[in-house]
Amino acid sequence: MKEPKERTMSVSGSSLQNEYMDAFSSINERPVDDISLEFFYKPHTITLLAVSIASVIYTAFVRDERDIQENIWSGICCVVFFFLIVSVLTFPNGPFTRPHPALWRIVFGMSVLYLLALLFLLFQSYSTVYAIMYWIDPNLRNFHIDMDKEYAVNCSDITFARVWSHVDVFAWGHFLGWAFKAILFRHAGLLWAISIMWEITEIAFAHLLPNFKECWWDSLILDVLICNGLGIWCGLKICKALEMREYKWVSIRDISSTTGKIKRAILQFTPVQWTPVRWLDPTSTYMRFFALSQLVVFWQISELNTFFLKHIFEMPPSHPLVIARLCLVGVIVAPSVRYVKTYLTGMQGADQIN
């Protein structure tokens, strides 16, 4: 009577073993960058936590207790560092997988920290926020916006030297910014609509922000046609090249030559695949059009917020706080726009799309 049971147990045990081996063989056959952190990076998790704890213990012994400001900075940096470590270990994967999902988990963690910082500042007074800014950078006490400076004067005086003088670092910022927006939106009509709407927004708020006052040739020719237009054109050309490219990925371990390994390592910072997006098509519903209009409006408000912040709190455009915030918002917007595309267009497999 025992023999059938033993035979049954042995058969079930062998089947479980086969399933176990099949699961791990399927994992081994997958590309290295496609394996989730839960399966492949548990030893790295322990190592990461051990190194983090050792770093905190080390800094606790070498810090100077008499330097209060330095201790506060060290504490803030430690909190941010550990929060990002927790983000890597516990936050879900984003819509992007390159160069590694862990990087986009860090971006997710930075967005949460930015939200928490805004919520904290929301309950502070104007003078308290100023005091925090002065504590971060005491040099801001000496900076004040020149409200007497005149903009958009002698607009009828159009010379090559004067037009060329307006091609400064901000013109390059316009060009690079719109190229980045083109890679995110991938739709010429939307991009041109946002570009023209932004010039209208500048005119509407010129009485509050004096630097929004521009000559007609500066607004239409330099901004819309040259800087924004060339940025949109270059960004869409990059999208077209990535869309037409043939994607055949192999693991870096399967490449024998050193040159091939280096090339594969560099290509790790390119998308896994490129999917064209049709925001609007003949089958689109009114709700999609309404949601897309909301996206455009929020995009304009976000950009307008940048100019109001540096005007109200009197910071120069080149200040590290302004640049760091723009870079942070830029990396946060990338996966956010992808989520909006996925929701509005109903694309599947968003976790594998770049």
Automatic annotation (TrEMBL):
GO terms for biological process: phosphatidylserine biosynthetic process. It is a multi-pass membrane protein. Coiled coil: none annotated. Keywords: Endoplasmic reticulum, Lipid biosynthesis, Lipid metabolism, Membrane, Phospholipid biosynthesis, Phospholipid metabolism, Transferase, Transmembrane, Transmembrane helix. Pathway: Phospholipid metabolism; phosphatidylserine biosynthesis; Lipid metabolism. The keyword 4Fe-4S does not apply. One of its GO terms (molecular function) is L-serine-phosphatidylethanolamine phosphatidyltransferase activity. It catalyses: a 1,2-diacyl-sn-glycero-3-phosphoethanolamine + L-serine = a 1,2-diacyl-sn-glycero-3-phospho-L-serine + ethanolamine. One of its GO terms (cellular component) is endoplasmic reticulum membrane. The chain crosses the membrane at residues 72-91, 103-123, 190-210, 216-236, 285-302, 322-340. It holds the Pfam family PSS. InterPro entries: PSS. Catalyzes a base-exchange reaction in which the polar head group of phosphatidylethanolamine (PE) is replaced by L-serine. Belongs to the phosphatidyl serine synthase family. This is Phosphatidylserine synthase.
